[in-house]
């Protein structure tokens, strides 16, 4: 078997961390939603999620100021809206209105849930030590919501350069983890 060198800019597509999420924030009377795929689980219980948000993003300022957000997990049916949110700045448009998303009040944070997403995770920032250097926030999931009617969610996974993979077949193998 022969191998060829892969440009380092393509590594992201090999290690994508999980489903694309829609991160919502609320700051100074304005709600916003951004598309994010740079996140990782850091701990199981309590659930901690690490995420990278560019300092250029409108949501960066809101998250840094309020230390609250919601990670909304869409299914493949929302792909066009997910991409639209990712290609639009919240500084210029109301993404909820533009892309037909419905904000719902959260129980424990000021940022809204997105009704159309099958799962929603209310979060607060618990560690900002890596924000100045890497734009890396650590989020504590305070409350999780799930749509019980969505039995087999097919999530989007960003492979880079506008390419997505949709979660497919589920397999179950023996595991000693609980």
From TrEMBL:
<feature type="domain" description="Flavin reductase like">
    <location>
        <begin position="13"/>
        <end position="165"/>
    </location>
</feature>
<dbReference type="InterPro" id="IPR052174">
    <property type="entry name" value="Flavoredoxin"/>
</dbReference>
<protein>
    <submittedName>
        <fullName>NAD(P)H-flavin oxidoreductase</fullName>
    </submittedName>
</protein>
<comment type="similarity">
    <text>Belongs to the flavoredoxin family.</text>
</comment>
<dbReference type="GO" id="GO:0010181">
    <property type="term" value="F:FMN binding"/>
</dbReference>
<dbReference type="InterPro" id="IPR012349">
    <property type="entry name" value="Split_barrel_FMN-bd"/>
</dbReference>
<dbReference type="GO" id="GO:0016646">
    <property type="term" value="F:oxidoreductase activity, acting on the CH-NH group of donors, NAD or NADP as acceptor"/>
</dbReference>
<dbReference type="InterPro" id="IPR002563">
    <property type="entry name" value="Flavin_Rdtase-like_dom"/>
</dbReference>
<keyword id="KW-0285">Flavoprotein</keyword>
<dbReference type="Pfam" id="PF01613">
    <property type="entry name" value="Flavin_Reduct"/>
</dbReference>
């Amino acid at each position: 078997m022969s191998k060829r060198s892969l440009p380092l800019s393509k590594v992201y597509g090999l290690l994508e961390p999980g489903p694309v999420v829609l991160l919502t924030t609320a700051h100074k009377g304005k709600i916003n939603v951004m598309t994010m795929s740079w996140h990782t689980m850091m701990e199981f219980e309590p659930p901690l999620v690490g995420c990278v948000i560019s300092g250029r993003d409108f949501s960066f300022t809101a998250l840094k100021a309020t230390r609250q957000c919601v990670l909304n997990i869409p299914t493949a049916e929302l792909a066009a809206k997910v991409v639209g949110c990712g290609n639009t700045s919240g500084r210029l448009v109301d993404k909820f209105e533009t892309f037909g998303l419905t904000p719902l009040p959260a129980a424990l944070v000021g940022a809204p849930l997105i009704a159309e997403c099958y799962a929603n995770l209310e979060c607060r920032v618990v560690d900002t030590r890596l924000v100045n250097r890497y734009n890396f926030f650590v989020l504590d999931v305070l409350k999780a919501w799930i749509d019980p009617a969505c039995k087999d969610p097919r999530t989007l996974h960003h492979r880079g350069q506008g390419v997505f993979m949709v979660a497919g077949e589920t397999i179950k193998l023996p595991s000693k983890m609980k």
